Prior knowledge:
The chain is α/β, with parallel strands linked by helices. The protein folds into 2 domains: 20-193, 2-Layer Sandwich (Double Stranded RNA Binding Domain), CATH 3.30.160.150; 211-243. It has 7 helices and 8 strands, in the order αββαββαβαβββααα. The chain has helices at residues 2-18, 51-54, 72-87, 99-104, 170-189, 211-225, 231-243, and strands spanning 20-22, 41-47, 58-61, 67-70, 88-93, 109-120, 131-142, 147-158. A hairpin with a 5-residue loop joins β3 (58-61) and β4. 25% of the residues are buried. Mean pLDDT is 84; it is low at 1-18.
Amino acid sequence: MQYFKMFFTFVFIAAITGCAHQITISPDVPMSNRGNGVDKISKNVGYYFAPSSREKEVITPGGGGDRVRYNPYNDIEAAFVEMLGNVFKSVTALKSGNDSEISKNSIDYLILLDISTNSSSPSSFTWPPTWFGVNLTSKVSDSTGNNLTSLSVSGDGKAEFGEFFGNQGIAGRRASVDALSKMQNALLKAPELRAPVPTITVSETPTPINGTTSQKLRDLQALRKDDVITEDEFQKKKQQLLEKL
């Protein structure tokens, strides 16, 4: 009796795990070609993926009662770096998120990425998912650890049955591209990540010019008008007089 219980348990586990087909959701188009004409943010950004995130395997539904498995952080990382390069001046992969590494690499902003996914398919005969969803959340802090913003986007990807040959993860790839493109736009538009434009205050009351300086300026103008001195000489001597005010 105990033997049969162990046997059926083994069969049950094998059936469950055997139906999780390996796919990849790595974008199949270069994110570097997806700029939108907005000026980059002039900051050095660093990102950090914990080892547990890099090794994380996710299993979501496919078609025909089967499931698919993939490693979302590993799959998306290269395109994520390309996307950040479209937004910021420079991008650095950090080995940790501690203060010493942030300082050593002259990091202005630290980004921590959270990824969640889902998939589905109405098919009873093919296992690749026809719909895929990728949700990204970027938590951005400055070099001192102050939270600047948290941006969340959702990407969708769909595929027809005829597209699965040799590319069973195509819906997931499309969802990744959609999500990363939306995150790029969200980062570029986030006012918290751009330095404020300095306000220049212009005094309403002009600095008075004393009589002596005023007369010297008139004399200089007369000399320039009569071509006694050149324009460069006039501007240089004028600047010297004004600097003495």
